[in-house]
Amino acid sequence: MSAPSLPAPQCVLSQNILPAPTCQNEPVVETTTQVLSVIDIPGLGGKVRRATVANTTVPANNDSALDTRANPGSGIVHPNGATVYYLDLAPRSSTPMHRTVSVDYLVVLDGSPTLVTPMGDFSVVDGEAKYTETVDTVIPRGSTVVQRGQLHAWQNRTDEWVRMVVVVVDAEPQFVEADGMRLELGEIWL
After folding, report:
1. What is the pTM of this model?
2. For position 121, which CATH number holds?
3. Which of 58, 111, 51 has its CA nearest to residue 75?
4. Which PANTHER family does the annotation name (predicted)?
5. Number of domains making up the chain
6. pLDDT tens, 77-102?
7. Containing domain of residue 100, as a range?
8. Which terminus of the chain is less hemmed in, N or C, by CB atoms within 10 Å?
């Protein structure tokens, strides 16, 4: 695997420094720039990388420090909050088929990834999705994708790296009726 041609992203943080000086009614504003740490997502052979910008509860508390650590578990959904991160896909690579309990807003900065979703209804049995066809949607550079808790995978079918900025907002789980039971559509990785 060749080294990615994408530079490590930067985060410019502009914030108030509290408390405000006693002789003024506005606090000092501080603006800092930090190069974000890009990490390989475990188990994917360096083909999928992530740089977390921030995790925050919603509503946010601007009095506390900005949390730039990855979340536990999948590292994608921050409970009762939002996560912002960069997602890089190596040429000719893909993520596993998965679903998170979230609303995701993805903006394609570089390249043209393909969003892969199952066609029609299907079942998951013993950790394997039982579908036969997929819908493959090529997302051009500059486009925004809104995902609402659906099963999906990302593929890069090109010879160039793909970079997306992702904002993930925690959501209430969806439920389906199956065989007389109410089943939660929770987070799943296949």
Report:
1. 0.85
2. 2.60.120.10
3. 51
4. CUPIN TYPE-2 DOMAIN-CONTAINING PROTEIN, SLR2101 PROTEIN
5. 1
6. 888 888 899 999 999 999 999 999 99
7. 37-189
8. N
